[in-house]
Amino acid sequence: MAIRFVFDLDGTLTEVETLPLIADTFKIGQEIAELTKETIAGTIPFMEFFIDGVNLLSNIEPTQISKLLEQVPINEKLLSFILDHQQSAAIVTENLFEWIKLLSAKFKCDVHASESITTPSGILELTNILKKEDVVRHYRELGDQVVFIGDGNSDAEAMRIADVSIACGLFH
Question: Is 172 strand, coil or helix?
Fold first, then answer.
């Protein structure tokens, strides 16, 4: 039985939350701040927050967002660990793969992210919103023992079903 280390991306591997960074950069910070406030208050569920956030950003070229996120500061110790354990590490994020493509390439491990149909000018349609717990289930079904490392409410269900969970507050 192998051990699989599954890492949340935002606030665990990155030193900032990426959606607020994207929103501020592309001048929709106020709208995202309102959605965030409602999500934290429990007024809207996380999935609705994510869908609404993606819709607000749908007219921005995915490559622009990917280039922005490539510059996000990352936890160098965790990067080093993942590079040393590439075959047993994975990253999970609700973020769109098109947005995190350049950032996640630095880790050289499996990456699981939400998917969309995109054009060079923007997002046409969300096709799959990643559920982190589905990735944990997948690795467990392969016979792996899963260690999940995360930092937020969107990690709770994945942490609940992992063999070992590490809740970290590295950047929050």
Answer: coil
Question: In whole numbers, what is the pLDDT of the chain averaged over residues?
Answer: 92
CA-CA distance, 132 to 156, in Å (whole number)? 9
In whole angstroms, how far apart are CA 57 and each of 10, 13, 64, 77, 94? 18, 23, 11, 31, 15
Q: How many residues does the chain have?
A: 172
Which 3 state secondary structure label does DSSP give 122?
strand
Q: What 3-state class would DSSP assign to 105?
A: helix
User: In one letter, which amino acid is 43?
Assistant: T
- List pLDDT tens digits, range 154-167: 798 999 999 999 99
* Alpha helix (H) residue ranges in 71-150: 76-84, 97-105, 132-141
Strand (E) or helix (H) holding 91: strand 89-96
Strands laid side by side in the 3-8 sheet = 122-128, 110-119, 89-96, 3-8, 145-150, 164-167
- 92-144 pLDDT, tens digit each: 999 999 999 999 999 999 999 999 998 888 888 899 999 999 999 999 999 99
Amino acid identity at 1:
M
